[in-house]
Every structure is written in structure tokens, then in C-alpha cells.
Amino acid sequence: MQIDFHYYATYCAAYLAGYSHDECMEICYSAQFVDLCTVSLLSRVKGPRSAATTQLQLEAMDTRTDFLGLQYITRIWASFHFLPYDLYADPKKGGKRYKNKYRLICNTNGALLVDTVALARNSTLQAVGIAMHVLADTWAHKYFAGIPSLVINNTDFHFTELVEKDGETIERPVKFIHSPGTPDDIENGVYVNTLHRYNENSIMNLGHGRAGHLPDLSFARYKYVPAWGNYEEILKDNPSDFYHAFAQMVYAMKYLRAVHETFETGRYDTEAVGPLKEKINGILTKRQLDSCADWKALGEQLSGREIEEFDLEKYVSEYTSADAAEKDETFLGKFFIAALKQKSMVTNRIYSSGSLLAGISVDFNEKGFKGIRDFASLISQSRKEVGNE
Fold first, then answer.
1. Residue 373: how many other CB atoms lie within 10 Å
2. Are 275 and 298 within 8 A, CB to CB?
3. Based on CB atoms within 10 Å of each CB, which residue in 35, 132, 228, 284 is the most buried?
């Protein structure tokens, strides 16, 4: 998904869930910041590099795709953008390497989603925002995996888009081009994607790169034939999926506010969202590359407050000027801690399933600290939380 949903739509969902305007702003800022917290940014602010939640295109291109490189990539992309659905799935074919990658395929309403949302309960607003980003992306990115894989993520030549013409739904072939920086031509069905590479582990085969931006566009309805799905045609209905994502975010955030005692998969707050269904579907089905203005208008209508534009530098000076002992209590400090928790949790779940694709994970509560120095702050924060209970 893009800034229109992660920032403005998340604000709307948070407000419907009962958060105040100021709380909504912190939540939606955090949700959008997940797409911008790169190693480059962390190096600039002198933050913990392991708190990276995404990669710049150049960073990804420079990342090795040997075993250690794949582990690094997977820790980022599987933890925050392509949450695995079933780490114990059995595709009944292929060797161990294929099965481990198959088990990283993203989908909605999996066990790791429950863990992700639960992790944000009784935590910071930054943790709430991160959880909402992960939740939303399970809908946009389902059927793709957060690891380079030609077998899992390639889209092949059979790729069509469903569009309305003269009151009827027609199916037209999608034309993909590799021209970075060129905007998608939604009128003529021309979309930018990554170069085809036969190398299974090429960075070009990461996530939905082979499908271009279509998975992130709310109006898109398309069909394609993935190799992992026994070459059966899959229909992605983004307007329906994005509506479910929105209603699920409202339900999830009510759980995080303790309105509900449990978070269950497959549940959506259609009661709160229902009165806005027509307006929301109007935004979701409008063929436009950027729906920020429409979501912003809806959010401001709901709260009666102005939603300021996203500013990447908003919290930087607070963090960089804080003393070392106070950094974890700043906005960015809290975000970094929440990001480390989410990455650590997902990495541990993947490792516990018997896969090394995200690296080795050690339970520090049982065995103490054995790992990357950046996670020392996570351990310290966790002990403080235990002491305050």
C-alpha cells in the first residue's frame, strides 16, 4: 500500500476506533514511517541500524543475495510488508528450500497477524502504527513473499486487468515495462515492474516487484497465474481487499484500546465502518494513482481537525538532540524499539518453524543476550516494562 492508505486511511480508521486526533496523528505517522525507516536514515540520525523497516531501491540493489544477504532481506520484508501466513504449510511438492520459501507467502488472517497485533497491545502508539502497517499490507501483498524468489513471486505473461468500459467489465492484458521513474499509465494499462531475471534469488524477484505497483493501487482488479499455485488463475480484487483491511484495522485498534478483550482473525468492524461504506468504496474504486486528497478529506470530516502532511523530518531533531539515556523515550526512539520488537518476533517465529531464512533467533529471556548490539536497547526496554507491571 501507499501513503494514501498507510497515512490518511489509517488516520480515519484510528479515529473510528476511538483514538483522539493527536493519537491518530502519531499512529498514522508511525504506519507511514515504516515505508521510510531505512538504514540510510538510521545512519543519518545515528539510530540502531537493525531497526530498519524497509530498504531504499539502491540499498536493496547493493544487498548481497547469498544466504546471509537473504536472511537480512527477509528480516525486513517478511516482518513489516509480507507477513507470512502459514509457517508450517506443506505444499506437497518441492524440496526443503522451496517449502521454506513457500511458507513465507503472505496472506490475510494468519497466526502471525494475531501475534503482531497482540505485540502492540499495552505498548506505544508507535507500535500501534507499525502493527496497522503490517496488517494493511497483508491485504495488498497477499500471495507474494518478502524474499527474492522467481518461483514464488514471478507473474509470467498471463496477467490481465479487469476494467469498466461502457458499463461493462472487460478483461484486458496488462503491459509491463521496466522504466524506473516513469508513472504508471492506468488509462492504457501500462505499469512499471522489475526486470525479469531467471536467477531465483535476484533482488528483482523480491515481493511484488514483478507485478509492479498494481498490488498497492486500491482500484486494481487483476488476474495472474503464479507458479506456486499449480498454475491456477488468481483474482486479486483490491477494492474489496482494501475495504476489509480498513474494517479490520478499526476492529484491531479497538482491541488495542481494550474495547475488545481478544483479537480474532476474520473479524471486521462493519458496524463502525458501515455508514461510510459508500464513501469509502468511492475512494477505493476511483482510478487514480494517489488518493491522498480523498482520504484526507474524509479524515478531516470525521474529526473536524486538520491532518497535517507527512513530514519525514518532523521528529528527527528531537531524537538527535536527546541525551543517550533519553533517546528511547523520544518519538523515533519508541518507533525503533517497536520495530525491533516486531522484527525480533517474526524472526523468532520463522526460526522456530525450522527455517533459517530469517537467521538464527535466541530467546533472551532464557539464554540472555547473544546477538546484534542494536537489540540490547530492546532487552533493556523489555526489562523496564516488566519492572513496571
1. 10
2. no
3. 132
Q: Report the chain's terminal Cα–Cα distance, integer Å.
A: 36
Which region among 145-159, 207-221, 362-376 has the lowest average model confidence (pLDDT)?
362-376
3-state secondary structure the chain: CCHHHHHHHHHHHHHHCCCCHHHHHHHHHHHHHCCCCCHHHHHHHCCCHHHCCCCCHHHHHHCCCCHHHHHHHHHHHHHHCCCECCCCCCCCCCCHHHHHHHCCEECCCCHHHHHHHHHHCCCCHHHHHHHHHHHHHHHHCCCCECCCCHHHHCCCCCEEEEEEECCEEEEEECEEECCCCCCCECCCCEEECCCCCCCCCCHHHCCCHHHCCHHHCCCCEEEECCHHHCCCCEEEEHHHHHHHHHHHHHHHHHHHCCCCCCCCCCCCCHHHHHHHHHHHHHHHHCCCCCCHHHHHHHHHHHHCCCCCCCCCCCCHHHHHHCCCCCHHHCHHHHHHHHHHHHHHHHHHHHHHCCCCCCCCCCCHHHHCCCCCHHHHHHHHHHHHHHHHC
pLDDT band at 255 (very low <50, low <70, confident <90, very high): very high
Question: How many residues are given for the chain?
Answer: 389
Half-sphere exposure of 363 toward its Cβ, with a 13 Å CA cutoff? Answer: 5
Distances (CA, A) of 23 to 19, 81, 128: 6, 23, 10
Look up residue 281 and give its amino acid: N
The pLDDT tens digits for 120-148 are: 999 999 999 999 999 999 999 999 999 99
Cα(209)–Cα(57) distance, integer angstroms: 11
